[in-house]
């Protein structure tokens, strides 16, 4: 299976996941004014994810003020999804769970098999998606995307806040859209 990458200024795959608070997150149904910030995380078993998502929750009001809807999504089941939302005391970030790994692949996410228990003592799922961070425009096209093969050295949310200010303020176009011969 080859790894696919999304193309800026092109439509992203459909996304429809259950939320820990009830209801569903359906990309495009009620988009943020400027962007939806979609943060795919590895799951409850990942202590680095928990720390990363705590920072996302801390900055969620900054994103909301900038017309950005924030959702964190994993392939965890409902119980593990709720546990992660509780662990980071989510109030602004929406938490989605049950991401189908075929959909994760459509988004260009890397998939890992379990290597057993993590440092938190939790068992990794048999298969799970590695991290990805995406900004999607209200029209469903990709503005920014970052995928990773590991849980380390992720894009910093504070940097994204500044990038959003610049992008919106300067009407800066999505970059990386060229797919022709090189």
Word description of this protein:
The chain is α+β, with helices and mostly antiparallel strands and 182 residues long. The protein is 26% helix and 22% strand. The protein contains four helices and nine strands, in the order βββαβαβαββββα. The strands form two sheets. The protein has a seven-stranded mixed beta sheet. The model has no long low-confidence stretch (mean pLDDT 96).
General shape: globular
How would you name the CATH homologous superfamily? Glutaredoxin
**Sheet with most strands: strand arrangement:** 2-1-5-4-3-8-9
Helix percent band: 25-40%
Arithmetic mean of pLDDT: 96
- Structural domains: how many: 1
Which fold name fills CATH's third level, the topology?
Glutaredoxin
N/C terminus separation: 24 Å
| H/E series | EEEHEHEHEEEEH
Low-pLDDT stretches: none
- Coarse structural class: alpha+beta
- Which CATH class applies here? Alpha Beta
Q: What is the count of helical runs?
A: 4
Main sheet record: 7 strands, mixed
> What would you report as the Rg, rounded to the nearest angstrom?
16 Å
- The second-level CATH architecture is 3-Layer(aba) Sandwich
| Beta-strand proportion | 15-25%
Number of strands: 9
Quick summary of this structure?
The protein is α+β, with helices and mostly antiparallel strands and 182 residues long. The protein has four helices and nine strands.
SSE layout and pairing:
Elements (H helix, E strand, L loop, with lengths): L15 E4 L4 E3 L8 E6 L6 H19 L2 E6 L4 H10 L6 E4 L3 H6 L4 E3 L13 E3 L2 E5 L5 E6 L9 H13 L13
